[in-house]
Amino acid sequence: MSEELFEHTTGQGKEDEDSKQEIETAQFSENLYDNKIDKDAILQAIALYHVYQSTAEDGNVVALRGLNVTVKKGEAVAVVGPSGSGKSTLLKCLGVLMKPSAGGVILNGTPTTRKTGLELVKMRQETVSFIFQEGNLLPDLSALDNVAQPLRHRDVSPYDAREKARELLIELGLEERIHGLPETLSGGEQQRVAIARALVTNPKLILADEPTGALDPITSREVLELFGQLHKERGVAFLIVTHSAEVAAFCDRSLELRDGRFVAEHGTNLEIEDLEESRELIVDELGTLSFPPEVLMKMGGSGRFEVEEAADGKITLVAAERKESLIKGKRKLADECPACNYKYKDDSQMCPECGSSRPMIKS
């Protein structure tokens, strides 16, 4: 397939003067997606790629590799994976804060491909809100004014914006802290203010990046309980990037991201430390199948495989070199994390300190 088929993100963030070729390419690509739009989905990404340009010796960095994802209306989906797997880049692209190098994002049934900057802002305001790990509250504004701020950007009068913000803060148990500045609030209170700010525009979808990462276990559970209420009572959809097993368990399903690809899907009973359980491997539209490290280790490592059987819903792979090891020399899990020098005490596949994948080394 020619590269032009994917270069349809032209126009995101632009106000005018798209070239004729850019417009024709974008229109053609959008037509390709017409029969792929899921009317029951609040968010879709189709063949999403992102490449960070670099002049370093190692060259460009491919952060996302043809991702496809669908979040149904009212559904909660977690994205799990080690540091550097592309989670934050994915979140920015899905929230149309950053245009991908290629591929399309569809918000509430509307492609974002050829939307201008102002149109994208309006789509975000009407559909999606963000919650970040640190809250990202404006330090010079009170809790009340932080929550009212998104409404002010939508030209709601100061009085009406503050009244709606007040009602929401009271509903979230912050009546006594309404006029407090962020620095005077506890971590849990700051996160509740951030949640109120995300909810004040009545979003259909919340994108959250490690929303409990900076909180203690008790406060984290309180925030998750609040998420659960929003999910059930208001029908708010969630896509949450997380390392937390508790957060993943809150979601309806979890997608495992490795090196910019979704490699597996899990049900609700996900144990982050034991990802091989209940794993469903994912084949993308280009036919790429990426094996997670521990599955590859059980297979004997990388190498050549023969397709012994291929039928509807089933494929059997057999090592092509049956009499020889697929790895030259025996290998074992590294004793020390190469990223942060953490010394492993068990057979875990990810570093508990920095989240990096544990490499295999020669024994």
Structure, described:
The strands form four sheets. This protein has a seven-stranded mixed beta sheet, with helices on both faces. A four-stranded antiparallel beta sheet has the order 2-1-4-5, covered by helices on one side. Strands 12-13 form a two-stranded antiparallel sheet. The longest helix is centred in the middle third of the chain and has 18 residues, at 217-234. It folds into three domains: 3-266, 3-Layer(aba) Sandwich (Rossmann fold); 291-328, no CATH class; 332-363, no CATH class. The chain contains nine helices and 15 strands. It is α/β, with parallel strands linked by helices. α6 (187-199) runs parallel beside α7. The chain is globular and about 70 Å long. The protein is 28% helix and 23% strand. The protein has helices at residues 20-33, 87-94, 117-127, 143-152, 158-171, 187-199, 217-234, 245-250, 293-299, and strands spanning 41-52, 61-72, 76-80, 102-107, 110-111, 128-132, 205-209, 237-241, 253-258, 261-266, 280-281, 305-311, 314-319, 331-333, 360-362.
Attribute tags:
363 residues, alpha/beta, Rossmann fold, 3 domains, seven-stranded mixed sheet, four-stranded antiparallel sheet, 15 strands, 23% strand, globular, disordered N terminus
Strand order of the largest sheet: 6-7-8-3-9-10-11
Q: Based on Cα principal axes, name the global outline.
A: globular
How would you characterize the largest beta sheet?
7 strands, mixed
Overall CATH class of the largest domain: Alpha Beta
Q: What is the multimeric organization of the chains shown?
A: single chain
Distance between the termini: 43 Å
Strand content: 15-25%
Give the beta-strand count: 15
